[in-house]
Amino acid sequence: MPFINKGFHAKRPTEGPNKLPPGQYETQDFPVLTAGPTPRINLANWEFRLEGLVEKPVKWSWNEFNALPQQDFNPDIHCVTKWSKFDTKWRGVSLDTLLEHVQLQPEAEFALAFSYGGYTTNLPLADLRNGQAFIGLQYEGKPLTPEHGGPARLVVPHLYFWKSAKWVQGLRLMGVNKPGFWEEAGYSMRGDPWQEQRYGSDDDAADTSSLRL
Amino acid sequence: MSRLDWQIGTVTAITPDTPRVKTFTLSLSRWTAHRAGQHYDLRLSAADGYQTERSYSIASPPEQTGEVALTVELIADGEVSGYLHEGVAVGDQLELRGPIGGYFVWPAGALAAPLLLVAGGSGVVPLMAMLRHRQRAKLPNPAVLLFSIRTPEEVIYQQELEAMAAADPAFTLLLTYTRQAPAGWTGHHRRVDAAMLAEAVALLPGAPQCYVCGPTGLVESVATLLQAQGLPDDAIRTERFGPTGN
Ligand SMILES: Cc1cc2nc3c(=O)[nH]c(=O)nc-3n(C[C@H](O)[C@H](O)[C@H](O)COP(=O)(O)OP(=O)(O)OC[C@H]3O[C@@H](n4cnc5c(N)ncnc54)[C@H](O)[C@@H]3O)c2cc1C
Known about the structure:
In chain A, about 10% of the residues lie in helices and about 25% in strands. With about 210 residues, chain A is mainly β.
């Protein structure tokens, strides 16, 4: 018999249950979540790199990166701390555009995003392609602020938001799925909110067939 | 990491801490020892199938076996905090899973560094677990709690903190009231700033391990100020509760 909290009911309607993954609630503001201090990054020294299992690593300066073709993205985002925010407004560079600049070695199946300040997070490469991920440079028409990961943040909206590395500096392509910062601390290796893969122990139970490797 | 299955806890006590804050003690049949700073996820289920979850830090120390204390601030129009405050009585059951969190924790024993704890409002909860653990396990780490509250009636755990400070010369409690201070107050009466943090650091015999928890504004500014005092990034651990306020 399912457990019920007597007298409990939803406080406010959401935009339709199909937009909200299990256990999440909708928020209007944009909470900040970080494990430590916010790094301040000088744009003159900023660079973005694609490295690891690629034929020839590439790197872009801030100006070069901003000259790449940009697009608008309006994703719903889901944080593992339970909030979801609908129709966020970003502008940035699609990962598909970036990956056109490298030739991947055949073993490349995973990526480790690494950031200024030392943060890392791991993702299956399949979750970064086909319009699913981008490097966000603007939020609601303005340069992305440092608290939210500016100057540039990886955004992978279909996974819990810790996979969307703030202050991103590059991606290392790998043949093995090496855990990043939160994953090392017990969080899920994939982080699909629709399967409620919050913690490492949720991965065993979850159906991983949607992982197109 | 062991499986984080949902389990049902029974509320054994509800204690008011302030007019807007209550501590819920839950006995758990599958209790696991936590590290101070970790939290539980709590899930509420409605009769129509609607479910929602929130995280609550563990206020009790791991020495308090078989149960956990969660301290919950009533948020205006809050879905879960509202239900907990108004709809839950001793003897009721709640569904939860944990302990969770591997970074905002105090790995006691392993760390000899003094503790600098900075809290805003209900951000004191995970820091209280660290202080209670330190006290119960008789850990030697010198510690300072710098606790920012708006008004005198908002000091969560006030009596316990004051008693702890009075009994233990290695622990200092520094309160700062940001709006209204008690009558005759001679201590701090402003937001946490560089001078206050320098004072707290100077009370400790060596470079501290810092834990900062509270609303985003406080956490952002305190973490940046501690960095400016020359503390390395990995000595500053942060956790944020609740809305951004903007
Ligand atoms: C790791 C962690 C540990 C935590 N530990 C603690 C703790 O120890 N103690 C504690 O008290 N809290 C803690 N929190 C915060 C807690 O999880 C909840 O966020 C908090 O209790 C508020 O939940 P609620 O359901 O009551 O409020 P919610 O219903 O989520 O609402 C919060 C606020 O946002 C507004 N709001 C939300 N949705 C909407 C909407 N759609 N439209 C308009 N307004 C909206 C509400 O009016 C309200 O003011 C912790 C959070 C984290 C992430």
